[in-house]
Amino acid sequence: MKHLTLIAVAALMLASCATKTNNMKENETINSIMTRVSVRQFTEEKPSAEQIDILLRAAMAAPSAVNKQPWGFLVVDDKEMLKKIGEQFPNSRVQNNAQVAIVPCGDLSKALEGEAQEYWVQDVSAAVENILLAAHSMGLGAVWTGLTPIKARAEQAAQLLGLPENIVPLCIIPVGYPAEEPAVKDKYKAENIHYNVW
Ligand SMILES: Cc1cc2nc3c(=O)[nH]c(=O)nc-3n(C[C@H](O)[C@H](O)[C@H](O)COP(=O)(O)O)c2cc1C
Fold it and tell me: Rounded to the nearest whole angstrom, what is the distance from the C-alpha of residue 154 to the centroid of ligand 1?
């Protein structure tokens, strides 16, 4: 029994070393962040309900101002609706065979008051990035495609998707299995970094 406990503790320590490391290549989280790319072409294979559930859980694990969680997520997998989205929003890439699209929205009835209401955009953006990273880590492809702040686009999407007055769509994320392998871009620029005073 004592041996088993020791083995279990050693295994746990090893597991934690594997992810909590300063080595960029060995750290799974950093590796996912550094290798994520926008995917805009998808295969016929549909992500499973479990995978979509994980993406939504990852989304809702995001930080939000005063922990308001002022969001809602519309999952579209109806073929007819996907077709309409692809036709009306070609920038969304849903027409490129996406089997599922997630529309992360701000819920203004849950948002802060006054000028702090606009925090919803940052809150939902954090959720969007979580979705993109979670999708990539599961071998799925996705891309953030913009609606808000382009008012006409956001209003058109709200109408198409039957969104209530208090729900504002931030973007459309087509999700599927990648049918392309875009190269990872190195965007690191030392000139973007300043210390203490700009
Ligand atoms: C706010 C925002 C809006 C975007 N809108 C679109 C879009 O409408 N269509 C599209 O194909 N990609 C869109 N993108 C994806 C960017 O083009 C992409 O992130 C950028 O080229 C960097 O490439 P990477 O994601 O592969 O690193 C958008 C990204 C962001 C953050």
Answer: 16
